[in-house]
Amino acid sequence: MENRNRVDESHLIHASQLDLPPRLLLGPGPSNVPPRVLQALAMNEIGHLDPKFIELMNEIQELLRYVWQTDNRFTIPVSGTGSASMEATLANSVEPGDVVLIGVNGYFGERLCDMASRYGADVRRIEKPWGEVFAPEEIGDALKAHRPAILGLVHGETSTGAMQPMEGIGKLCREFGTLLLLDTVTSLGGAPVFLDRWHVDIAYSGSQKCLSCPPGIAPFTMGERALEKLNERKTKVASWYLDMSMVGKYWGKERTYHHTAPINMNYGLREALRIVAEEGLEERWERHKSNANLLYEGLEELGIGCHVPKEHRLPSLTTALVPDGVDSKAVSGYLLRKFNIEIAAGLGQLAGKVWRIGLMGYNSRPENVNLLLSALKQALETVG
Length: 384
Prior knowledge:
Aspartate Aminotransferase, domain 1, single chain
């Protein structure tokens, strides 16, 4: 008689001890993590409603306000990667039929359009070639033409290395009763970001770029105008997990259980934010700018240009133009095999045309720039 309780071992494998190469992550993210953050991740776990954890939650919220330069009371880390926080901005601010205007000048503008459409938005687009930025006049004309409920812009476009100037755009949005939604995934902690000064209503970021924390927890913030729209919704937020009317009760005074927070990821984020605060924002921004300039100079010496004009370059992410006749994948593959250095290929319209080089947070250091330039020179001579 067949034993129905017999274990099926067809999927049983004897996995070896985890052994990973010591990569230097100079792509678009994740970036390498400081030892202090790794140590924080390994600390003893406590309960997600433990008084000590609630104290830690308060500290994270205050440090996020500092890094974002905002007084927003609703400022939290979402339990998920940056894409979860990105989706949370739209899930909570968009109601079916809302006109949502998206600035599309790269891959992540396209993603905002896709996400907004899934929540029933009437998506309108203002477009520029990948690598260019929008002038305030163009934004103003589009606001006048479309009268959107929400304008979504990408501050630091990871696919192109362009940084969108923000002065005056928030004021334009106020004139038209429009909420301003901003992607700061690749700029937060690496370039000047002033949410309140720019009149940004709702924003998101990621942990794994200039904050130098592993992916899995993602900053999110809503100003009073965005909260008012959330509180006056006629329909429920379509995502239960990302519904900030409920999640906010866990991060607010009520401390009402919603889901089990990723406790150790919060430890890591707190330590990463503490490192940012110890360095100081202005000093950190200047460090990223200085190392980016060092990279630009070195690339020029190798005969490599940059896709984005210097005045609009994101200091944490550079799109270096692949020289004519060079196999971009062969070069990046050589860097990985011979030097354990990761850089990334171009996305979408820039596939095969650029390398994306990240100098983010802990990795934005002169010695990393010099090592990369030396390795890149050898790669071009060997396989280029």
